[in-house]
Amino acid sequence: MDSTDTRGKMCPLYPVHLVLMYGALLVCVWVAGLGTVVGAVARASSLGVRLNLNNTPAYTLSVQEGHQETVTFFIDDLPPQAAGDILIEEMPSDSLDHIDISPRKIPLDEAESQGLLERSENNTLEGSFNVSGKFLGFTKIKFVLSNGNDQELVESEPVNIKVQRGQRVLDKIFIHVVIAMVIVAYINMGCAIDLQVIKQTLRKPVAPAIGLASQYLFMPLASYAIGYGLFNNTPEMWLGLFLTGCSPGGGGSNMWTYLLDGSLDLSVTMTFISTVGAFLALPMWVYALARTIFQDGHFSKLPYKNIAMLVVGLVLPLSIGLVIKRCSPRVALVMKRLLKPISVIFIVFMMTFGVYANLYIFAFFTWKVALAGILLPWLGFLFGAVASLVCRRSWEEAIAISIETGVQNTGLSIGILKVALQEFAPLGDITMVIPVAVATMTPIPLTIAYIAKRIKECRARKTTYEVDCPEDYEDDMKNQLHLSPSSTSSLHKDANDNSKAVFA
Questions:
Q1: DSSP secondary structure string, 39-60?
Q2: CA separation (Å) from 417 to 174, 420, 434, 474?
């Protein structure tokens, strides 16, 4: 058998199988190199953009609400024959409108002819645009080269933009009015409290100890657990809730305690103790758990000055009220009677104008934020009440402990957040939605309780009538009840006192 016959029998497709073999090998090489080729083309076709803000290279643009900045851009290696439009497009990460860009479209030919764009010798195109801050938050922009018919050809890498919150006159008005109202309320409280009762409370500090344990053991742990369940994927929100739970009792707790007939003396004592205790308890919890939530936060500079101002802002007005009570009891009595309407006005002001002043923050409200704002204070109310009743405290003390536990000083937690997240601004302003949510949801059960109390009082008044006693009331009482004159006189006096108390 010759060699030709042998080759033909071995491969019936000879010599076609050689073509197929080399063709398959070529396809494999082409497929293997396709990704590299596509990647190289994509990199070569992207716009290289550099930004300058105030003559300084900027990799992240920072603008303030209500302010406009002029940004200079440089597009490198743009081919001289490139034509069409340069589009500046916003890429928001949420549904909010954070910035305003002008102009959003720059025609290449027209802009160059008008001198709005300049081209250097190395084909770098230079131009500018204006960006205005509209609403705080984070967003991105990108530059796109289109063919003039809004068909995108190439685009740049996204550029981060953060919009900082601007200072508003409304915020300053709100802060100063709140400070003034709190000072007036505390002066009136000084006219209403009894130093002897406070001294007796401090001699046997069972009730303050219950409140302190509820404030600085239960609330921080509860806020940490709630944050873990709701904000495990958003550590900044978790941090905001945790810092709110670590804060001392708020000034509104004293007013609510007075309105709901709790022990005002105990409430004021607990507010003072918890505020002073914040010097130790707050850094302890922050250093123990805050970094497990937000590792890169700055927690070394806690606002001790603000805590000291809270102590002074509590003690000084109360001392003024005590001096008025000692020097002029009649004036103190009038101021004590004004405490309830002042407290109602303050609470209504906080629930109306306070919400309006912080209305912008409700754009970040989600169901998780609302649920966190409900759970933290309401669980605090419940725990404080249960702990008080288990320890067999009086109903007035239980009310004071419950309210003092649930009402947090959200202003202090907002201050700590802004310091801790200062390098991530405006994240601190956004995260304050958590303490604002807590402050918004806290009065709901207290308002319901106060309305129920007032309804009960009104019903009691309708079913109680003042009876005019005849002149021979005492003689009839003597004959019917066979009481001594002194006992009858005492009974008559008690009846009149009760009648006056009902209609007071």
A1: HHHHHHTSBEEEEEETTEE-SE
A2: 20, 5, 10, 69
CB contact at 8 A, 408 and 249: yes
**Phi and psi angles of residue 131, each rounded to the nearest 5 degrees, phi first:** -125, 130
Q: How many CB atoms lie within 10 A of CB 322?
A: 18
Q: How far apart are CA 286 and CA 346, in angstroms?
A: 31
| DSSP-assigned beta bridge partners for residue 141 | 90, 159
Q: How far apart are CA 380 and CA 373, in angstroms?
A: 12
Q: How far is CA 39 from CA 46, 295, 326, in A?
A: 11, 36, 84
Bridge partners (DSSP) of residue 308 are none
Among residues 202, 184, 352, the alpha carbon closest in space to that of 254 is found at 184
Amino acid at 18: L
In tens digits, the chain (504 residues) has pLDDT values of 444 444 444 455 555 555 556 555 655 544 444 343 333 333 445 778 888 887 788 888 888 888 898 998 888 877 766 677 888 888 887 888 889 999 888 888 777 777 778 877 677 888 889 999 988 889 999 888 887 676 677 888 888 999 988 777 888 888 888 888 889 998 999 898 888 888 888 888 899 999 999 999 999 999 999 999 999 999 999 999 999 999 988 778 889 999 999 999 999 999 999 888 888 888 899 989 988 998 888 887 777 888 888 888 888 999 999 999 989 889 989 998 988 898 889 888 888 888 888 888 888 888 999 999 999 999 999 999 999 999 988 999 999 999 999 999 888 888 888 888 888 888 888 888 999 999 989 999 999 999 999 898 888 887 765 544 554 444 544 444 444 444 444 444 444 444 443 333
Cβ(492)–Cβ(476) below 8 Å = no
Question: In a 3-state reduction of DSSP, which class is residue 86?
Answer: strand
Q: Which residues contact 151 (CB under 8 A, 6 or more apart)?
A: none
User: What count of other Cβ atoms lies within 10 Å of the Cβ of residue 198?
Assistant: 15
Strands 159-164 and 137-146: antiparallel
Structure tokens at 441: 């949801």
CB neighbour list of residue 7: distance below 8 Å, 6 or more residues apart = 14
Reported pTM: 0.76
Q: Judge contact between 446 and 460, C-beta under 8 A.
A: no
> Long-range contact list for 69-74, CB < 8 A, 24+ apart?
69/130, 69/131, 69/132, 70/128, 70/129, 70/130, 71/128, 71/129, 71/130, 71/131, 72/126, 72/127, 72/128, 73/49, 73/126, 73/127, 73/128, 73/129, 73/143, 74/49, 74/50, 74/124, 74/125, 74/126
Q: Is 444 left (phi over 0), alpha (psi -120 to 50) or beta?
A: alpha
